[in-house]
User: Fold these one by one.
Assistant:
Number 1:
Amino acid sequence: AHESMFSYVLLFALDDLPGEDFKRFKHKLSFSYLEEKDPIPWSKLKDANTLDVLRLLLEAYGKQGVFQNLPQLGPHTNRKVSLQENYVELLLKRRPDLPKRGHEMMAVERKHREMKNSPEDGPEVDLENLFHPYPEGENSKTVLLLGPSGVGKTTATWKFMLDWASDKLWPTKFEYAFYISCNTLQCGPKLMSAMEMILNSCPLGTVSMEDVLANQESLLLIVDGFEDLKLCDDPADTLDKDPHQKQKVVNLLMGLLKKKIFPKCHLLVTTRPMGVRPLLKCLRSPLLVDVLGFDPIHRQEYFHRFFQNTGQANQIFVLVQRNETLFRMCFLPATCWVIGSIFQQNPQAELLQNIPETATLTEIHLHLLLTFLGTNSKPSHLEDLCSLAKDGILQRRLVFHEEELKERGLDCYLTSDPPSASQEVFCQDVQVETLYKFIHLGFQEFFAALFYMLDTETTRTPYEDLFGDQKECNSKYLMLIHFLYGLSNVERMSVLQESWSFKLSKTEVWPELLRWVDQEAKAHSFKREEDLLELCHCVYEMKDSVFARKAMKNVHDLDLRTQLLTKLDFDALLFCLSAAEALNSVRLSGCEFGPQRFQQLLPGFLKSSEIQLFLCLPISSMSVFVCLPNFHRLNRCGLSPTACKDLTPITMANTRLTSLDLGENPLEDSGVSCLCEWLLQPTCPLQSLRLPSCNLTAAVCRPLSQVLESGSSLLELHLGANLLGDGGAKQLCQGLDHPSSRLQRLICMDFPQLLGPVGGWAWEGQLSNPEFLFWPLPRAADGSREATKVFFSQQILKLISEENGIIPELKWKRGKKYPDISI
């Protein structure tokens, strides 16, 4: 049975073609070159039926030759490439939970950025182990492949079918495998039975229906493009379970997914993330797998397979890799194909050399589109094309019927072989040649944004459909809005107007974009780091300082602790910081910027009341440092003792700095001693100083004690995780006991042993886990002072107060005025 299915697998793309499409296919076979062999003569194809065409194909090209060729991405499906030879492995990762709502392409791009920093994030899978039980015992008969348009979901299912039919994959697990295209179902008969759905596409007599029903456990159904279906709300118990009973195609597919029909079969379903939630209502415990496109290694492999010349492939890959943003975009196979096609058309193209390394997403799409279509090749019927793109995005449609293109006057994109440059905007659907989609989702979103910028009477439409629904703005419209910001840039408007000879206007768009920022701020969207970063990128896209100042009035806190990962992220942050008038806080973490970048951020930092930097490496010199606001945190930023020398004169001029956290920097004794010079100044406003894990020893305790004795404003001192020893403790006690000391809180660790009274303070006992904190109260009228709190890890401490005598072992007693104890 497996061998008899081979012919079906070879011809699955033809099986349900309507009459006109079948004639069109035969016509193309008469001039198409597969495997560099001559086309099949039209005289043989003219009156051939399905079986005749199957025989002619096998005779002309052989079994492997026919099946291993698949339609190449491009406007016309008569172009073929070898799937076996040209397939590049896609990155597949198990997903433990549902994808978050948001723009699906941006979500995958963000996932790639996160994986760069955390390579072990989530287990990888491949086609071979999709249905394997996992170490934790989890196994599922239903696998759901999730991914945005153009990421390679359909190609992955074709490769699965090819490897299965060639006995390279699951030769014994699946006796039957059927590919079901949801696009094809939408265009086919309205009523159909389950058996007709899976058998009509097979050559007559090759499959026994009884055998399929009797061997459901060895049956695999691949349902491709689920998001193209409009589901019904019929309860599961109303769906017909009879595989021979004709019913609505949507109901039939629902019955298959809910295992009402073929309950023991295996399912492999592909969908865009937007279709996953309704789909999960149909599936039984599916295994979720993200299709993430190409990882960096396989992006290089793609260009090597695209170009026959190894030297040319290496050259192009190096150029792509040099541009950080463009290289990230190449996770999408469609982007790689566009770049390859540009160089294939014109090997001398200066495309990549002309794209700045810090180019924004709009700049890159503009460069790609102009080069791909031709700088002087204005797309035909541009306004109608942009209107179609806009309607598709707003209605969540990526696929368009041939009739719709004709009705809009876009039939010029459907003819001519080979196509002109402007006709490369669309590509035909592989299964149904009367369906078209934009060659790249980014191009559709770009044209959709351009619709709102065209300076014509017909495009002056209300913006409620775009900005009215806040939830939709944050998901399917986000990239469109991003492009609106980018196209509102004066320089880009000029380039487009000059290249394609039409007028653009931002007069109406500008207030709408400001209104969108205000709407997002009221919805507290900017409290989410990814949304805040996207705002920064949008504002940076426009590069208009007046607009930026108005937009940034809605932002009070810049919290990007997990988001600042690329050079473009940094440039966007820098631009928005410069535009902000005042901020409550700026929080960054894990940012790899050095002194030069830090100096650029400095003016923006000064506008914030609170700054927290964590693991921002390497800041090796403080010569670029800042007159700090009232709270500043610089944890793990690689600050050296020299940095403290540079910091001292700057902080002396600062009258607002009340809290400073320099923890986990190798400041050493010499660095902190320099800080003490500033702390000794009468005008020093610092109240809290945190120095944990700064490689300090007992030597630093003397200058710190002098600071306490000087009557410094310091109220809190954190010296944890430093090896200060007994000598250091004694020095600190002298400062604590001084009448001028104002210190309210001291945190220390790693004092191995403190014996005997020192000044007004002493500890007795050996600390098995030496970590403690105490707060001395201000002196009473009689000059005495007691500890208000003592924290310790394992052993109760005994405090001795010189003025009050020995206090017994302290325990928690409610209502008593003893020092509080926390264990």
Number 2:
Amino acid sequence: MFDMSAVARRIRLGVCVISVAASLPAVAGDPAKAAAYYEDGLTRFDKGDNPGAVIQLKNALQQDPSMLSAHVLLGRALLKETELPAAEAAFEQALKLGVSPVEIAAPRARLLMMLGRSKQLLRDVSPNGLMGDDLVEVLTLRAKAQSLEGDRAAALAGFEAAIQTDPSSPRPYLDLVPFLIQGGDLKGADARVQTLMRIAPDNADTWNLSASLHHVRGRLSEALVDYDKALSIDPNHTDARVARASLYVDRKQDDKARVDLDYLAEHARREPRSAYLRALVAARAGDQEGAHKALTEVAGLVDSLPGEYVAANEQLLMLGALAHHGLESREKAKEYLDTLLRRFPRNLGARKLLAAIYLDENDNARALSTVEPVLEAQPNDPQANLLAGRAHLGYRHFIQARELLTRAVKYLDKGPQALFALGLSQLGMGDTAVAIDNLEKAAAADPGDVSIGTALITVYMQRGATTKALAHAEALVAKAPKSLPALNLLGSVRAAAGQPDKAAKVFEQALAQDPKFAPALLNLVRVEVELGRVDGAEARLQAWLKEEPNDARAMFEMGRIAEQLGRQKEGIDWLRKAASKQPGQAQPALALVEALSRAGQPAEALTAAKEVGLRHPDDLGVQAVLGQAYLAAGDPKAARQTFRNMTRIAEFDPAAQVRIGRLMLGAGFPDDAEYNLQKALTARTDFAPAHALAIDIALHRGQVDTARKALEALRKSAPNDPGLLRYQGTIALASGDGPAALKHFAQQYRAHPDARAALNLSAVQERLGDLAAAEATLRDEQARHATPVIYDALGQILERQAKWAEARDAYRRLLRDAPDSPGILNRLARVQFELKDAGAMATADKARALAPNDPRVIDTVGWLRLQSGDVDGALALLRDARLRAPGLPEIRYHLAEALARSGRTGEAEAELAAALADGRGFRGADEARALQQRLQK
């Protein structure tokens, strides 16, 4: 039992005792008063009033600093209060004043054992001169110290010596039986329990040890009988009551467990084990608040104890780790587990918990190295197989993962967690149908598990089964209506299903239960942004950051909002802060790379991408961004090599191979993309995204017939794929059948009206020369669901129709929400120029100040300078823009105009030839041809 009824007074009492001991020689008092205080202290000590005894004994020592009996009794009282440093000081002072070591040998041995100082105990506490119970106690504790030092033979001999000293004493058996159980000698432990039954049949400790042995052997019914017997003898036997409650919890007999836990809450209020069990029962009932409160109590109890005491106590170390793990304080949990495994390396439970924490941190290497000794000792341990399987799953070693997880499922009797992990490994191998079956079985076995539900719902959403996903999320909440993770999941599904209003209400419901529940708050912020309530979202984040100034997640969201509002510099600053706060997390760093790219800073983006790439060499998402950064920086060779490395890492993961294939195709490497495609189809011939990639590869190569065949394969594998109409339209465009393309894209927009479909349809209408129809499509989508991307596209269509005033209004509407967007400011400046607005130059300069490396922005400033007569200034700017973006024909035309005006006819002709080479239309193309004709005369 952990007797910690006065832990809260430890520091105060300890300081008082030490200060009293230090000042004793200077105090003159009354010996008679000292004796009276001592007698009262002794009476209180005998009655169990240790705090009262401590006060009276201090009073006695103030009156008579040399009272040896007061020093000794003070040490004993403080020891019972677990005031270990103060107890040690009292005993040391007693020894200095002349107390014989024999008088305090037994309590001092207990003190040193509690502090984990086994070597000091063996050195300083001798059994010589001891008799009776004290001799048995010291011999037993010395034997236990030998076991902690790793000398099992000496320990066993010590226990035997203690038994021989008094064969009728149960004391040695209380440590000997656990020693034998820990060493795997269950037969020997059983023999000792039987001996104990003969010599102390009415001792509660006897029956508790017998129950513990049954418990270890899995004889749970027999264990319950013996725990009951122990508690019938001594209802206050804390160890037996905690163990019985634990057994009830394991058997999911929570009502019976609560009876014991309520008793412990009243009679052993500072018992961390019972508090931890209360947390488990509360969590299982969906009472997250109660679970959190109980875990906080456990953590507070263990953390408040002296470090040396905790470091020597295996159970306390484990409880501290479990509590902090439950509170998501991973670093503190790891501290306890590291200490535990250094001192008790054979504790397999601690190894499994530490491996689980490493998995939560995506540290698969440490997880494997931590759990492998468990598999060596117990190859069929289901949790160890599950953890090792998950680690291999993280490495995308799907074959090894499947073997381990199949074994875990077998030994866990198709337990939900093993089925869950096995389903994930099967997803990785492309066995989607089997994977979904196992995930559904896992969800049915544990319908309240949010992790399982999240995985299953994600698969449903990926396959377009939104109705199933919503139904499952709603069932989760119905099962655990107070579960914050379940509410957060339901809100996320509703948001993904295009129900932002309903999603916001669910997130608000979660926050009403716990305003500090960060996942719901951050998701609510994202939904508010989607609903256009940007100011409210930003204010919510600012309020949160006042309370949690180091929350990198909130910094990340602030960066995203600032970016969306066009405040690029501010957005980049927030993302830098988020990335620096979470160097081990890829998401903030990736967002920073993308923000730098959008800001026209490819070199800075590449530097940031390299940094995050080095930290996450096997993360496909990270490596994809690194490859794209190489492309943006003009290094396609390095990009290609990065994508090839990704191909190797992905093995035969069909989804990953398709994503890499798209990157290869976008970079202009169709042959490499074809290789990715074949790997994906080898893993799964009916994988619809692979057939979609095949269409795009064929179209890139100009192989329309091959694209049509791939379209049929896509139709066969996914007849309800919403992308079918889009691909039909794209193939029709590639074959030169504009009307058919228009028909398919119009059908797509009617069937699945969203911003992307509207943009696709308007792009085809524009390509066919029907700018009015393109404008009408965008205005329809604007009326259905106005978004910044639609306003932007509408502004550009209006520009092409020379509807300058309307385009200006569209851009100004965008700038209300994004006043610092360099792209929008740049387009507004061009429109203002056409309207002969004197503010055009100021607008362009502002855009350039926000995005000094963006070639389009530089081009606009240069063009306006040229039109104002500043040929030299314009020429420098336009040369800069052309070097940054040689593939943009409009920039080359503008540079040609500047060159022509400065008399550099040859250079101007070369730029015009490049701009007009492939017949692409661009703004100013007619003027470029006219200039070319003039120069050729």
Number 3:
Amino acid sequence: MIKKIEILAPAGSSESLKAAVNAGCDAVYIGGNKFGARAYANNLSEEELLEAIDYVHIHGKSLYLTVNTVLKNPELENELYEYIKKYYEQGLDAVIVQDLGVLHFIHKNFPDLPIHASTQMTLTTAEGVKAFEGMGVTRLVTSRELSSDEIQEIREHTNLEIESFVHGALCYCYSGQCYMSSMLGGRSGNRGRCAQTCRMPYRVFEKGKSVRGEEDKYILSPKDIMTLSLIPDLIGAGIDSFKIEGRMKRPEYTALVTSIYRKYVDLYLDMGRDKYLDYTKKHQKELDEDIKKLMDLYNRGGFSSGYYKTHNGKNMMSMQRPNHSGVLVGEISQVKGNRAEIILKEEVNSQDLLDIRMNEESIYEFTLKNGAMKGDKIETNFKSTAPVKKGYAVYRTKNDRLLNELKEKYLDHDVKQGICGKFIAKIGEKMELSLTHQDIEIKVKSDIVEEAKNQPTKREKIENQLNKMNTTSFYFAHLDIILDENIFIPAVKINELRREAVSALTNQILSKYRRVLSKKNNETESNDGDSIASSHTLTQSGQEKCSNNKSKIVVHLNNRIQLEEVLQRREVDVIYYGTNDTLLKDILPIARKVNEVGKQFYLVLPHIFRKETYERYLSNIEILRDPLIQGYVIKNLEEYTFVTEVVEHQRFQKEIILDYNIHTMNNSAKEFWIEKAVNHFTSSIELNYKELKELGCEDSDLIVYGHLPLMVSAQCVLKNTKGCIKVKNKIQSIDDIEKTDELIALSNEVELVDRKNKSFFAMNVCNYCYNLIYNGQPISLLSNKSEIDRLTPYSIRLDFTFETRKQVKDTLDEFIRVFAYNHPMEDDVKDYTRGHFKRGIE
């Protein structure tokens, strides 16, 4: 028997929640008024959310609350407990979590509350979830970049439920790894305030020359995904929950997408794979019509099937238009003055919104007064300033009839729950009404039934009164009425009995979900602040020796040319070396050179550690265990498991350092890692000076210089604009590096320029087949020496990427002058940003 597949619908408002339930979802995910990843949705108030929890439970559904942002220390320590407590007691089914500090806190204070690991955690293998085993996590939400084969691999190695996105918007960046919106405007995606910078236009240059046509402006804008054709493969891969994106969309969108996926998933579950494939083949027209409805409601340049069967590519992108494309319905056949004739390729309706376009650029938009059939010709006036021409396409961006049908079917009426009833009225006894819903049965009694003195109460009247259930969530699927003859019952008494019975049934259903926090949990909460503070104090004391001296100077780089310059600097204590442009087999000679000059060598692991990368590192395990490598800088949970369980870092005396990609924005997150014997962090790049001071930096590296990566993407800017060139590392072939002074990273040859003329550099990390998009402005805290001294970070860190050897030399000269010798600053970095050190984020 095929297992049940959950249809998980988005609910950005109360209306969307009801639409999802009426359309047949099994569960909804929704945000409250805090801590959700869609801060600009019509999120529910506390009272509305409490009512929503009851509403879904009465209808036999589940509600998952999004707490899927990174929390600052005061938020977690002062607000999170009371925020969760009310919903926990009401019967909240699960929380969706990104921040490991939030996960740690919720599990400690609400140990029986299921936790879903958000896609914002960037989980790409089953190894990643081992980091939080035994901490209440019941489900992982996979990264959207995974193939169905990779998901099947996860299924074979974990007992957790697997949830994956099947429809809706797709981020360009791996979720949880995007800082673009944050750095450009202070609206952090990790805080639920993404400004959709991937939907903005960019010009692309390679070596200063444009590499694409003017019409392809939106090079970072993916199409929405639609996976109806992949249902058999996704179920076969072991996905338990089909997740629909769209908390910012209208309720009609939620209703349509939910109902269509409900329809086809149920067909598959009823028929099995072979019969389902045969059915969809024979009913291709029906499937096409359903897809057209989805297109009518929202699409960006059509749909893609996401990454399930494709690693990346231009066919997944909507480069000409970043928003709703609509459906092609006609073409301009004639233009006279400011009047255009349109020949229709599809039926259109009164109040449809049509858009005349040149390529994908909107020229003129108008609302139809009257509908017309396919093949008809219609006319419209347009503004004289609109350059409408014969041959231009006409798209429909609002299908008024479809919206009205969805509203009438799913929004105007609630789907009711069928119950069984039994009404007994015998003279001289109390009348009785029993209601049964699934395994719950209630029975209520009322006044004693009297014999009729005049006109007896008829069965039909009693039945009519009992069936007045319009204001309830129920209807009688079956109703038995047992009566003595010649009885009299006032209608008001029947109504009172019905209302009392329905209320009792409702309370009985909801009582199954109610929780009361145990005394033990309350004690945990009351001491929570002390617990976190205590563990953090231990961390600081463990670093005391370093904190009392000057901060160490750490340099992070990826290539040998820059390394040659850094090796000469005795003031640099530690080298963090990445493998963007270096193969693992070449690491030990580099590490030996670093060790020989008395510096420590730490290997920086990749941004993403998918199965293929895991296997590559596994095949080089002896290199990774070599004593020339003092430790590892890790960027994701997969790498933590790999280093602890495979490399066996403790056995081989290797230190683990968390990069800023593993968010430690609060003490609870640090406590999570301290309990795993990891106590060396990298300060968040999204906290300002005051927040860093309050959190403490004595156990952390602080990045004081570098071009920061703003996006990590499975897509490739160069491939999507010019074609895949599978860049090989030029540096490996250079024999006389002393004479080389060129821009190191090949990626620097690909430049993105936004509408405000800000530059970004796209790095092709072909070693691991992902893209990094860097801020064109480096961060520099050179002029903030006094504040950094007050922070007393364990290390200050300089990140070098695109810099020439001379630029590395000049930058190091100045930072060493200021930070190692306390000399006044002579020459600051050109065209720099302080990042969030001063301004911070919301």
Number 4:
Amino acid sequence: MELRGVLLLTVLQCCSVARGGCEPRLVNIGAVLSQKRYEQVFKEAVSQANTLYGKDKFKMNAISVTHKPNAIQMALSVCEDLISNQVYAILVSHPPQSNDHLTPTPVSYTAGFYRIPVVGLTTRMSIYSDKSIHLSFLRTVPPYSHQAHVWFDLMREFRWNHIILIVSDDHEGRAAQKRLETLLEERETKTKNRNYDNLDQQNFDFRRTPKAEKVLLFSQDTNLTALLLEAKDLEARVIILSASEDEAAAVYKAARQLNMTGSGYVWLVGEREMTGKALSEAPDGLLGLQLINGKNESAHIADAVAVVAQSLQELFEKENITEPPRGCVGNTNIWRTGPLFKRVLMSSKYPDGLTGRIEFNDDGDRRFATYSILNYQQKPGRLVQVGVFNGSQVVMNPQRKIIWPGGETEKPVGYQMSTRLKIVTIHQEPFVYVKPTKADGTCKEEYTVNGILIKKVICTGPNGTIPGQPIVPQCCYGFCIDLLIKLAMSLNFTYEVHLVADGKFGTQERVNNSNKKEWNGMMGELLGGLADMIVAPLTINNERAQYIEFSKPFKYQGLTILVKKEIPRSTLDSFMQPFQSTLWLLVGLSVHVVAVMLYLLDRFSPFGRFKVNSEEEEEDALTLSSAMWFSWGVLLNSGIGEGAPRSFSARILGMVWAGFAMIIVASYTANLAAFLVLDRPEERITGINDPRLRNPSDKFIYATVKQSSVDIYFRRQVELSTMYRHMEKHNYESAAEAIQAVRDNKLHAFIWDSAVLEFEASQKCDLVTTGELFFRSGFGIGMRKDSPWKQNVSLAILSSHENGFMEDLDKTWVRYQECDSRSNAPATLTFENMAGVFMLVAGGIVAGIFLIFIEIAYKRHKDARRKQMQLAFAAVNVWRKNLQPYPTDLTGQLNLSDPSVSTVV
């Protein structure tokens, strides 16, 4: 230990001599250059860097070699000439006039094995961004795939929202595709939640996200003619090509034969696609890119050396540096400081490089690269710079006019509007009716109630409302079909209509219980390319508007509630409803009490018939029966023929009773009219805030349609979460099923679009809508994002509103009502209302018949008793005559024939 301390002290003393300290550490920097002449450039760059960096800590030394003819020789040279000299980093370019950009691979593999950083100078293949293969590789140039950033900005600059991406089916092509698609997705995510409702059309177009309509991959075996024919059938006319020089030349040649290089088309390419053979076949008006200073190897050598020197200085200030490996033979140990040195290199920033600002991303690729935007013009026969990409945005040169394909000077719109559209719709009356075709495959002629011929179109779809049914031709007609026919005539397009396969409007659902969501229904078919346009009663809402474009609403509406109409059922005792049972009991009791009082007053009055003339017959007096008849007669206003009270006191009571009867009868008549004629039953639901809806229970079931806009609305409203949980268990597959359930009393209330429910209530008189509208919205025509038809369709709909066409459609399909005439006509009594009265009469008849039989039976019984008594008296007389043979004179004197005379034996 003492010896080591002495040696350390000696070293420190040596370091304190002249020159201010120890000799700086020698740091070897290797380079594999394309030509001998760049070796001197490399040495000068190292010498220049030594004056700026390191000072007394390190001094760089340049060791360089040139490329070897094959990979094995190159790897051996790296080991023998560079790694054996303990290099800290290796700079590598690629051979001149060579398309083999993979020549740095042996250098990257060999140095990467020992974790020695490798700085690429001119290599732009995307494979070097894969850090699982090229562990220690970084570069001062961007890969070709980064040209996607410039393409994306050019699309936004020129407001092209429809593109076709044609890429070679190799690593470079797929990398460019992935890069561009990532940019498109990121842009779409940023714009999703922004509000652009108040933008004019120009600004609206600018904010829209470009989208690849189709990605076409090709290889050496691909039939390019067939591939380009597929592209020709698409709407997009902006073609982005990523391919090698030879592949690009073949694509240009095939495109020219198909007339795809003329007016209306736009070709955006990268650097490879406009060099050498590719440029000789390039179409006039081509827009391409060229990396500024991309082939300036001297500038990249100087910048790379400066970045390495700057990183070494940072490394020496903070860390203890271990020695790099010496040679490859028998050495399998990695350089422990190598990964750290690579991280320092990748985090370095060099703003004043000869090639511009130098920074690296996580893959070690150059950031903020600058490009020239070149326009190929055949007349001068050269590439003309019309703009630049400054590392963050495109800046066009207004002084340089772009010549577009076909010699055009006006910017192409970038798409062609296909005149044959695929329309998807859904069965929803009265907007879309679906009926089977006739045997010959045509639609049956029908007329509206106004005598207008119904316009029908053939639509293919499931045979029935259940998904999975066979697809057959059917007849579609209704509000939306008339609107479609009108739009087709106005905008000059043809169409083919089909019904949505799953019978749903469209909502997002999870895929296989994952976090990924996909649209189903009409939304899914539109986004999946199975349809170009949705013409159906599709509600406009924010969730859908994030993914598709909506036209201006063709019908404004809201949500309402459908319930079954509470029709009052008349019972047999309905005529007794005006009075309560207690009142009826009191009236009946009063009749009899008054009758008894009339009888008593007339009986005991000195002026009654019993007292005035005792010689008059008893029948002329007011008997109890007559009093009863009088009392009922006054009450029922049947008229009094006889048997009226005679005494003044009884007559006073009779007049009071007559007044009482008048009031009772008048009150009864008025209330009877109210009950049987004027009464309208109150609806069961008052609206969305009805307690039965807000406080759900199993006794009152309400629902909507699964995966519909209404379902989405209740799901997203926090204050309606209780209602949604109740509805979720009872929702139906379609509106038709739910409406039928209401009619069958299986569902108490159905919440749906007001236009549909009001129509159903007008056609089915046992249904009624109730409550005020809520969640007001509209029906719109759906199109894919950035559809070229969006503006034209909206203008056509606005024009239809102005000229009254929409009003006519409303009258024909929605406002036609069958139940209004019944509900607005004066209410009249029916047999059901008065059945009880007729039953009362029938009961009176039956009672009369029953009583007459009793009276007849009683009379017969009484007559029989009387006859028996007469026979008995006759028999007694005969018996008496036989038992007492008295003389006739004696018998006559005794008057035995008189039964009142008793005979003693």
